[in-house]
Request: fold
Amino acid sequence: MCGMSARQAPANGAKQQGPHAFMPTITTPNTGIEIYYEESGSPDDAPILLVMGLGAQMILWPDEFVEALVGHGYRVIRYDNRDIGLSQKMDGAKAPGIAWQVIRQKIGWPAKVPYTLSDMADDGAGLLAALEIDRAHVVGASMGGMIAQLMGVNHPDRLHSLTSIMSTTGNPRLPQADKAAIEALTAPLVSMEEEDLIAHGINVQQKIGSPGFPADPDRRRARVQAMVQRSVYPPGLPRQLAAIIDDGDRRMRLRTVTAPTLVLHGEDDPLVKLEGGRETAEHIPGAKLVTIPGWGHDLPVELIEKLASEIAEHARTAMARDAVAA
Reply:
């Protein structure tokens, strides 16, 4: 799932206000990055770590979705990735131009990026370590799915299970996003004024949302406004995008994932096409694929209970397998 535009606004800097502005963070012991996180549910329940997508704050995980997972008996932890929301910003780091980065990648010349997707996966593993959680069920959406996949590759001992939502393998031969979705994401921010930011966010949500589950306009506006009032930081998104491009094709690496894996994908996703989810499931040994007609690149309220139930049942099955193995 995606947040603000990949192109920076004319104004610089971050905008943070509202009740979350001065909440504490935790520093990951392995990467030294300050991560903002929130927990729900009982600390005695099995933990689920939620990893959000490109330019998207943790509150893009709907409260209702978190509550549904808690209702299934899980301790739910959601956090802001580095360079977004209330987590640490990589101020001053410069991302390479997208076109130049793609060209260099095609001819085998590495581009210098401020950080990698593997670094972001290390952040997730580091957050679990800082919270003294040995293993968790890791659930990622869009870029968060890529990060979750890399946690499965690089930190297998940290995962009870893996769920990859509306994500992909990085295979450049897969179908590309719809033109309207790309244009919405790459449209420049006209200003840092709240109403302009809200209008931009609504346009993005409209273009990538679920055709079979159209969002209520008032609910959508309220969610976008909450994100704008919480934090706006345009420089972070191109650095995250550079990390995605730099990571390239994960297909061979995905074959090494040992965590029980569930892949959830919308059949009408305009941003990350269904083929991305299918290929993810094909390359992770034993992965289960669940697709839903009418679902796009968002988390519609109508699907919250179904998605939460699929994840909860997958987590229970994985825990039962671990208990038998022990």
